[in-house]
Write a structure and sequence with these properties.
The chain is mostly beta strands and about 400 residues long. It has three helices and 18 strands.
Length: about 400
């Protein structure tokens, strides 16, 4: 049999194994749901990606997509599959237990885990005051608002949320207070995110939808080669975050968030080398329950690493704005963004445009066609993605 046929058959078999495992777990969880307050979320997706780019960051290159070609400006086609599964269990009104994980089939040579834990936390409290403890996403994203931190608007996340997906996952406690419908304040103390900022400094912003899992090692360009975004704490110090949100229910919202990991630089070495990182995020959205949604985020900060004889600092900044229109079973989205790292002669600046069409045949089946183009100083490229997704 021809090698290309063997490869396609192996891709198909692995995709089927992922899909079968996700559905089997979903059926098991659904059985539990009959006897308790138990909610299951599951997605199985397959993607065909045609990309013109440098070798991907996932293999240690400088390419800005989750997949890439063998050489600069080459074109390549890859096939990927992902299964996400999570649950919310609420045995009593004041207690919620959540966990979710991911399994994936990726091209050979990708550095990282094929499966792992994405979130695991416990909520205690009421609608007005809530304490969350565990590993969780900070509530900043205006894209990734669907269950399991997925996006209803596009297949590929913005550069801002692509970075959060890879490196920002607090492990700690979050206290949130919402005295009324219009005002929310929150504060977080966390550990295990001491290397946050490494990928921005080493290879800059990227666009993708790959979610790092707990204790995973992911790729960096040489000479460091790999980093571990989150796992055990390296310096025994807490990081902190605070946020303030104003909202008009079902109409609009704006949120300001500050994050500082307060890492002690110079206490570790790759893949567990601390970078002292701090940043601000401003998130806004209008029309959340209307056919047309406008949303955006702006982030600015810097990250610093220590070495014998001194430190090295890298400032970064990015923003995006998206407009999405839902018409019956169709959704059309356009997103425009800019992202930068460095300063002075070392500054790198890029822009990206994303156009997406999503067809939802029903609550279970989704088909998406998306085009992304990156221009600017850093490696450029374009990507065309066809996705089929089944939700259980």
């Amino acid at each position: 049999m021809h090698p290309s046929i063997i490869l396609k058959v192996s891709h198909y078999n692995e995709c089927m194994r992922i899909a079968f495992a996700a559905i089997l777990c979903g059926v098991t969880f659904q059985a539990l749901a009959q006897t308790s307050s138990f909610q299951v979320h599951a997605f199985v997706s397959g993607r065909a990606v045609r990309v013109t780019s440098e070798p991907s960051w996932t293999k240690g290159g400088f390419g800005k997509f989750d997949v890439g070609a063998k050489e600069t400006d080459d074109t390549n086609t890859e096939y990927l599959a992902t299964a996400q599964l999570g649950f919310d269990w609420k045995p009593v009104n004041w207690l919620l237990i959540h966990a979710d994980g991911i399994g994936r089939h990726e091209p050979s040579g990708v550095v990282g885990d094929n499966a792992g834990l994405v979130q695991a936390y416990v909520d205690v409290g009421t609608d007005k005051i809530r304490l969350r403890a565990g590993e969780f996403w900070l509530p900043t994203s205006r894209e990734n608002i669907d269950p399991l931190w997925t996006s209803p608007y596009t297949v590929t996340f913005s550069a801002l949320n692509s970075w959060i997906a890879q490196e920002v996952r607090p492990i700690g406690a979050d206290l949130q207070w919402s005295p009324n419908f219009y005002f929310t304040v929150g504060a977080t103390a966390f550990r295990g995110n001491d290397t946050m900022g490494t990928v921005l400094a080493e290879r800059g912003w990227v666009l993708g939808n790959r979610l790092s899992v707990y204790n995973e090692v992911i790729a960096l360009p040489p000479p460091d080669s790999v980093t571990k975004p989150f796992g055990s704490d390296l310096d025994n110090d807490n990081g902190y975050s605070a946020r303030l949100r104003f909202q008009m229910p079902e109409r609009a919202m704006i949120q300001v968030t500050r994050v500082e990991n307060r890492a002690q630089i110079g206490v570790g070495s790759p893949p567990e080398e601390p970078w002292k990182t701090k940043f601000d995020v401003v998130s806004a959205e209008a029309g959340s329950t209307s056919p047309t949604v406008v949303a955006g985020e702006w982030m600015k900060g810097d990250t610093t690493v220590g070495f014998k004889g001194g430190t090295f600092n890298v400032p970064f900044e990015t923003y995006y704005a998206l407009v999405s229109r839902k018409q019956g079973a169709e959704r059309y989205t356009a997103r425009f963004e800019k992202f930068e790292t460095g300063a002075g002669e070392q500054k790198k600046s890029n822009k990206a445009t994303t156009l997406a069409w999503i067809h939802e045949a029903n609550k279970a089946w989704r088909t998406a066609l998306e085009y992304v183009k990156i221009t600017g100083d850093d490696p450029r490229g374009s990507m065309l993605t066809l996705e089929f997704r089944f939700a259980y």
